[in-house]
Amino acid sequence: MGRMTATPAPTPESAPATPSAADRPKRVLLAAPRGYCAGVDRAVIAVEKALEQYGAPVYVRHEIVHNKYVVQTLERKGAIFVDQATEVPPGNIVMFSAHGVAPTVHEEARRGRLATIDATCPLVTKVHKEAVRYANEDFDILLIGHEGHEEVIGTSGEAPDHIQLVDGPEDVAKVEVRDPSKVVWLSQTTLSVDETMETVDALKDKFPQLLSPPSDDICYATQNRQTAIKELAGQAELVIVVGSKNSSNSIRMVEVAKQAGVPAAYLVDFASEIDEAWLEGVTSVGLSSGASVPDVLVQEVLEWLAQRGYADVELVKTADEHLTFSLPKELRRDLRAEAAELVKE
Ligand code: SF4
Questions:
Q1: Smallest Cα–Cα separation from 99: which of 344, 238, 299, 291?
Q2: Which has the higher per-residue pLDDT, 27 or 16?
C-alpha cells in the first residue's frame, strides 16, 4: 500500500485568494460598433470632394457634423463654416450639414444666388418626408426631440403649423391637439431609445389614438451605439465616450451608460481631457465614441490608457454595420460630368 498523504485542509493563509480589484489585470472594453455612422461619413467625404472638385473655399452652413476635430480639420483644408446661408457671398457654394435644414434655408440660398449641396443624412430626410406627409393629411405632429437642436429646427420647418416639440415626458402635460384622433409622433434621430419610449407611453396615455411612425425615426447608428454601451456598462467601472459636447448622440451614450449602472461615465473630445483621477480603483474601462467621431481619436485614448497600464483591449461587439450612402446628388452629377470630360480628352 503506498503511503497516503493527507491533503491538508486549506487554511485561510493557504486558500487561493480571490484577486482583489487591484490585482486583476487592467483592461479596456472597446465597443463595436462605435464612431462614424453612414450619414457622417457621407457628409465629411462630401466636403472633401467639394473642395477637390470646386476648390476652396467651400462654405458649410453650421458644423457639417458635431465634432470639433472634424470641423477643425476641414477648416484647414479650406471649408468655411457659417451660421446662416445669408453670410455667404453670392455666386459661391454652400453645403448643408448632415442634420438637415428647413425649406426656408433652401429659399434663402436661392435668393442669395448660391449653389447648394445638401449633405442632409438620408435618415433625417426620411423624417422630413414623414412630417410633410402627415401635415398634408392634416395630422397634429408631436415631434419628440431636444429644443434648439439643428435637426429639430430643420424638421419643424417642414410643417411649422402642424408640428409641436415634445422635449421629454415632462412636456406631455402641456401638449394640446386639435383632434385627438389625428395625432402622430415622430422623433429626432439621435435620442435615447428608452427615454423616447417613456415619452411615447406618456403621450399614449393622454392620446390613446396616437399614431406611430411607419418605422423607427431613431436611426440604426444611434440604437447600435446605445446597445453596445449598455453591454460595456455592465462590465466596467468607468465608461469614456469620445465625442463633442454638442453631439446629441454622444451625450445620450453617456446618459445610457449611467442609467445602465456604471459608476462613472464621461464625454471627452480628446485623450488630453481625461482626468487620471477617474482611473482610481478602476480595472475595466469601457470605451466608445459617438457617430460623428473619427476613430483616430479613439486610438489616441487607447494609447493614453495603455501608457497607464490598460494595455489589454477586448472588443465588445453587439452588431455589424454595413450601411453606406451615396454622395449628395449635386456632387455626383458634377463628378460624373468631370469624369465624362476626362474620357473625352
Ligand atoms: S446619427 Fe443617424 S441620422 Fe445622424 S447622420 Fe448618423 S446615420 Fe444619419
A1: 291
A2: 27
